[in-house]
Design a protein that fits this description.
The protein has 246 residues and is α/β, with parallel strands linked by helices. The chain has 6 helices and 8 strands; from the N terminus they run βαβαβαβαβαβαββ. It has one domain: NAD(P)-binding Rossmann-like Domain (Rossmann fold, 3-Layer(aba) Sandwich).
């Protein structure tokens, strides 16, 4: 890691926001960038994960506050391990993980003809990346019996979603992420660590394209789940703070 910071003193199991440390993946632009910005405004120390560190650093400077860019490709197990070790050395804890990194929005593809390579790529980023990063960071959350894991998903992955034509690999990978969210949440019930999935809605981002809603609103939904004051909501699929059907 290129940035060193003093490690804070030991804290209570539920630290005040100014002492909480959050990691947001895929955060140098779009929804992730806005999630970082809103967490920073709330007083969190935020690690801005980006595959391109130069772009990550530029984004961190633009936001300001206690934001540090860190190199992170969630599909790279070695890079994940290096980041986790760095977080432990520099902070000694992680309180919030937002699994935002995603992609492979194959809008024109069809399930009948989608290639195995495209499906694997979507699963690697949208499911396995979030899975391996969460598993690697859970020990830091367990240490203080506090954690908020937010998996950014999509309403198009719901079995109730209409017009299920298009985006086959993306839909399936996000549906798998939803299933993982529920499984992990059930395992962690009562631990002080809660896991929820958030559908931010169709947003005007690089992934969503023009015509979507304001990214600020979608990010606010993610941040609300990241900042739950009590672990009462666990294993839910949320949009704008409300439960929606899986």
């Amino acid at each position: 890691m290129s940035t060193t910071r003093p490690r804070p003193a030991a804290e209570a199991s539920q630290p005040s926001p100014v002492h909480r440390v959050a990691l947001v993946t895929g955060a140098n632009r779009g929804l992730g960038f806005e999630v970082v910005r809103q967490l920073a405004v709330r007083g969190y120390s935020v690690l801005l994960g980006a595959r391109d560190l130069a772009k990550g650093k530029q984004a961190a400077r633009q936001i300001g506050g206690d934001v540090v860019a860190v190199p992170l490709d969630v599909t790279d197990a070695t890079q994940v391990a290096e980041l986790v070790a760095w977080i432990e050395r520099e902070h000694g804890r992680l309180d919030v993980l937002v699994n935002n990194a995603g992609g492979h929005a194959d809008s024109s593809a069809r399930a009948e003809s989608a290639t195995a390579a495209d499906v694997r790529a979507a699963l690697e980023t949208n499911l396995i990346g979030a899975w391996q990063l969460s598993s690697a960071l859970l020990p830091l959350m367990r240490r203080h019996r506090y954690g908020r894991i937010v998996n950014v998903t999509s309403g198009c992955a719901s079995v109730t979603a209409p017009d299920a034509i298009g985006y086959p690999a993306y839909r399936v990978s996000k549906a798998a992420l939803n299933a993982y969210t529920r499984a992990l949440a059930a395992e962690l019930a009562g631990s002080g660590i809660v896991v929820n999935a958030v559908c931010p809605g169709w947003l005007a981002t690089g992934l969503g394209g023009p015509g979507g809603g304001p990214v600020e609103r979608g990010a606010a939904s993610v941040v609300a789940a990241a900042c739950l004051p009590e672990p009462g909501i666990n294993g839910a699929l949320l949009r704008d703070g409300q439960r929606i059907a899986w």
